[in-house]
Write a structure and sequence with these properties.
Distance between the termini: 42 Å
Radius of gyration: 24 Å
CATH class of the largest domain: Alpha Beta
Number of helices: 8
Strand order of the largest sheet: 6-7-8-3-9-10
Shape: globular
């Protein structure tokens, strides 16, 4: 995996100061945030390694952006501690944390050129002119923006504006990078093109990165691990494969994966969960089903079925033909079982 180049040397983050090569570990120790006794985030405990990208996922209002704002110092922490390397930054003001945050709006000054947008922050921090020129030049080259330095934001494409916002963040030589829906304003094709570039620039041997997005595929493509939040509480953290194959509860199983997992009610409030790609037509015994409709998904087709145990979605190759009435089967190893409380059950057959 590529390392994170410095704006001045082209090498990993400079060894002088806290943001040295290798980065620092971020630890969230039971942090929470309350507003008028309403919990926005509850006892979040996470560790993010140097150079690791951790994606925060969950429905709207689950606490993703709240977490970033607490890390950036934009909102006060109601409980818990935030440790970055050897420093407790829980009470530090935003300007002292050396945290870079990239928003979905990019927040570029429309009346300034690319160069002016990048110079402003360094000038306000008292960086000498020669050093400003060196750092900005190296960063523009790194992000392939050198030829655009005199253009204003309105003259840039969405992808170019996104890279300018990222360049401004990297010029801070941050100890921690926070990205809040940084590609949500881009079309799907451009997001797919920029994803590997963004990962190359941010992930590897630099500071820890927290990435907030609603796009599951974007999160899987960017992040080393995913953290799933619901109602301000952490549900599960792990690799995408771990969460997909071994979800700890029904919420995680239903949230992760498209098309959504099938849920079949059982006795005692239990539920049997089956991924659509694990179902197949049976030549012999199986669950009787009736084909309702199909959706073409390119190389695959999503088949909507009606059964006596509830509706099912089955994912098949697009060219496979199905009769109106059929039998559906699956392997027992692909079954996921959840109790009435939503927690996963082990050893249920």
């Amino acid at each position: 995996m590529s390392t994170m180049p410095s704006a001045t040397t082209g090498q990993p983050f400079p060894a002088s100061g806290p943001a040295q090569a290798g980065g620092e570990e971020l630890r969230l120790l039971g942090i929470g945030r309350r507003v008028a006794e309403r919990p926005l985030l509850q006892e979040l405990t996470l560790t993010v390694a140097p150079g690791e990208c951790l994606a925060l996922l969950g429905p709207s209002g689950c606490g993703k952006t709240t977490t970033l704002r607490l890390l950036a110092g934009l909102d006060p922490v109601s409980q818990g501690r935030i440790l970055l390397g050897n420093d407790d930054i829980t009470e530090q003001p935003p300007g002292s944390r050396r945290v870079a945050m990239v928003f979905q709006s990019y927040a570029l000054y429309p009346h300034l050129s690319v160069l002016g947008n990048l110079e402003l922050g360094l000038r306000l921090r008292g960086v000498p002119a020669r050093e400003r020129e060196q750092r900005i030049g190296a960063t523009l080259e790194l992000l392939q923006l050198s030829e655009l330095r005199q253009r204003r934001p309105a003259q840039l494409s969405g992808g170019q504006r996104q890279r300018v916002a990222l360049a401004r963040a990297l010029l801070r030589q941050p100890r921690l990078v926070l990205l809040d829906e940084p590609m949500s304003n881009l079309d799907a094709q451009l997001r797919e093109e920029l994803r590997p570039e963004l990962r190359r620039l941010l992930c590897g041997n630099g500071p820890p990165v927290l990435y907030v997005t609603h796009d599951q595929q974007e999160a899987i493509g960017m992040a080393d691990r995913l953290a799933i939040l619901q109602n301000g509480r952490l549900q599960q953290v792990g690799t995408a494969r771990e969460l997909y194959e071994r979800p700890v509860n029904r919420f995680v199983a239903c949230f992760l994966g498209r098309p959504a997992i099938n849920l079949l009610p059982q006795e005692g409030g239990r539920q049997l969960a089956l991924r659509p790609e694990h179902l197949r037509p049976s030549q012999g015994e199986g669950l009787a089903a009736r084909l309702l409709r199909r959706e073409w998904w390119g190389a695959q087709q999503l088949c909507w079925l009606e059964t006596s145990r509830g509706p099912l979605r089955m994912l098949l190759p697009s060219g496979q033909q199905l009769p109106d009435s059929l039998q559906v089967c699956w392997e027992r190893r692909d079954e996921l079982w959840f109790g009435a409380d939503g927690e996963r059950l082990e050893g249920v057959w």
